Amino acid sequence: MLENIHVVLSHTSHPGNIGAAARAMKTMTLSRLSLVNPQHFPHADATARASGADDVLAGARVFENIDSAIADCRLVIGASARIRSIPCPVVTPSECAQLAWQASQSGQVAILFGCEQSGLSNAEIDRCQQLVHIPGNPDYSSLNLAAAVQIICYEIYVASLGAALPGTHEQHAAVTAGEMELFYEHLEQTLVELEFLNPENPRQLMRRLRRLFNRAGPDENEVNILRGMLSAAQAAVKQQS
Fold first, then answer.
1. Alpha helices, DSSP H only, in 104-219?
2. Do 50 and 139 fall within a single domain?
3. What percent helix, strand, coil does the chain show, rounded to 5?
4. Cα dihedral: 150, 168, 4, 62 (round 10)
5. How many domains does the chain fold into?
6. Of 11, 36, 208, 235, which has the highest C-beta tally within 10 A?
7. CB count, 10 Å around CB of 217?
């Protein structure tokens, strides 16, 4: 099931980091690499730093935006070194690995890494059900991108070596990131029609709602129920107008 786990690098600025990440992945038997708007790829520095992981680089897929890169993933975990103003569930690398391994039994999983300078953007975090934080020296939190990829890939590989316990993986049909984006669009549209959300002054309402549903992790049937409720609310508004 390791083939169901994708490492996604967003807006990578140095091609050498892409190659080093590919090398880190291959040493831990992961091979699915996705790149979102890399500044330089393909590049000789990426090939040189890959040190033989040329097959991982050759199979890397390049996307224009994060939504297309994770559209078919049922679990998205983002790597973040910063504490955010709006809380999001944070797990350790080993917990991240267990979640990723279990979810990979029934669908695609993405481990998302932000650019080297600033990490994940708020918009990228909005797409994550969990964040993973690699603990270290609080006075010098300067972990290289490829080193972070190596740590997470190592933990995932270790998790894959353990025998899966019966019933530990989710039994319900998980929702893909693409389906969740359609739900969020429907939710926002309905809240505007209900005049609960002011599009001119949205504050952080949708971001907080994203975090709420990301924590809840609704399945496919539950999302269909929620969208049915939204459609009913929209119909009621039209009848009153």
1. 122-125, 145-161, 177-193, 205-216
2. yes
3. 50, 15, 35
4. -70
5. 2
6. 36
7. 17
| Cα separation, 231 vs 241, whole angstroms | 16
Q: Enumerate residues 6+ apart whose C-beta is below 8 A from 226.
A: 183, 187, 218
Q: Tokens for 216?
A: 């809840």
Residue 190, domain extent: 177-240
- Over residues 98-151, the pLDDT tens digits come to 999 999 999 999 999 999 988 999 999 999 999 999 998 888 877 899 999 999
The angle at the Cα of 68, spanning 5 to 10, to the nearest 5 degrees, equals 70
β-sheet bridge partners, residue 9: 35, 113
Q: What count of residues does the chain have? A: 241
User: Going along the chain, which residue ranges are E strands?
Assistant: 5-10, 32-36, 61-63, 73-79, 90-91, 108-113, 130-132
Arithmetic mean of pLDDT over the chain = 92
